[in-house]
Amino acid sequence: MTDLENVLPLDSQFAALDLGSNSFHLIVATESNGRLQVVDKIKEMVRLAEGLVNTKRIDEDVATRALECLERYSQRLRSLPPENVRVVGTNALRQAKNANAFLRKAETALGHKIEIISGREEARLIYLGVAHDIEIQHDQRLVLDIGGGSTEIILGRNTQPQIIESLHIGCVSLSLRAFGDGKLTRSNFKKAREYAAQEIEPVAEQYRTERWGVALGASGTISTAQAVALAMAEAAGSTYEGLTKKALAQMVDAMVDQEKLEKLSLPGLSSERAPVFPGGIAILQALLQGLGIDTLHVAQGALREGLLYDLIGRMHQQDTRESTAEDLMRRYHVDVKHARRVRDTALSLLAQVAKDWDLTSANLRLNLGWGAMLHEIGMDISHSQYHKHGAYLLEHMDMPGFSTAEQNNLATLVRTHRRKFPKEEFALLGYDADKLLYLSILLRLSVLMHRSRSAVAQPHLEVTTKNDKLILSLPKAWLASHPLTELDLAQEADYLATVDIKLVIETF
Question: Which of 114, 349, 394, 404 lies deepest, with the highest CB count within 10 Å?
Answer without folding.
Answer: 394
